[in-house]
Amino acid sequence: MENRFEDEVDMTKEIETLCSFENRGPTKEGERKASEYLEKRMKELGLDTHVQRFKVSPHYYWAYFIHALLVILAGVATIWTRPIWIPILSACIITFLIVSFWGDLTTRFHLVRNIIPKYPSQNIIGKIPKDNAKKNIIVSAHYDAAKAGSNVFDPDLDEKVTKFYKEKFDSTPNVMMPILICMFGVLVVALIRLFIPSGKAMWIITWVFQGIFSLGLLIAALAFLDIGTGHYVPGANDNLSGISAALSIASRIKKNPLKNSELTLLLVGCEEAIMMGMVEYFKKYGKELDRDKTYIINLETIGNGIVRYGTSEGFVRVKPYSRELIEIASYLKEHGGFSEIGTYEVRLGTDAMVPLVRGFKPITIIATNENYFVPHYHTLNDKLENMDIRVTMRARDLALSMIYELDRP
Asked: 52, 186, 274, 354: which is deepest, by most CB within 10 A?
């Protein structure tokens, strides 16, 4: 077993090297330089490697700022209930914005975002082919880094909120669903005005209900503005930990090949743009993949705390991950020497959500502390020295063991 898991990847060195490419944000120069390095490394490891190039709008924060601001303004416009076309038009605009926001959050389609300029990015794809493969196993991780504002990602506040949700609901907070609810609330007020155009009741609805929903949207808009005017973080844990583990997995499988499966190493750009790199991958290659035979193991922020396997994911509607992959992870926890690992419901988006909503079989492996919080998440302290590489190794070993279990006849 020891020799089977030898590789040529020094994960600490890989993270250190990739962190040297500063401003590694989606579509930025640092991301491009990192992709060139990763392409070279994958070829050195003996993978059949190619680069998928695409153009996307990476600025989710400006797209969501526009959504929130326009819903507020459309809601204000409905105060003028005559002529009747004003609240009708406003309701139509708000409905469109809700649909657009929902489509963006679920990665199913993009409407408002498509009006924002697009820039080039890339995915690096490497294969260890297998003739007559019975399964296609994709190991994914993203190499771009997040943009963080001055106030939005406060680690102390974020951990307190996360701890509260864990203790009360054994879950993690969903930061996007309240925004969608506020948009829907403004729409309901606009529709009510069609039937109650004036009078005391209308003004109570305006000042109380619409006031609350609009305030929520204003807070969201200011948060997105804060992120948009912020800075790119080093992204050692999020997500060079996943990248280094993915390279290590490929190296080990190259030396100890799978018997029944083809392995695809998918290193994704633009994840921090709400999974746009993964969207582009499935847009181009999704039709070529067999949903029943394709499995995606996504590695995300595996540099601190307790290694966990995801059970479900969703910004809006939570969907369960692949039953087969969950059962394998559960089996390894009980019988495969991984007794310390935990489970996790992902309410922040990862690259696994893209194949999940498209009917494929994904799972995310992640690491959090005891409060379900990822230390140094989207902060300037997301550096190599604040990681525990032993956690990354453990997550890699879990993913590798899951791959070999999947490869059984």
From this structure: 354
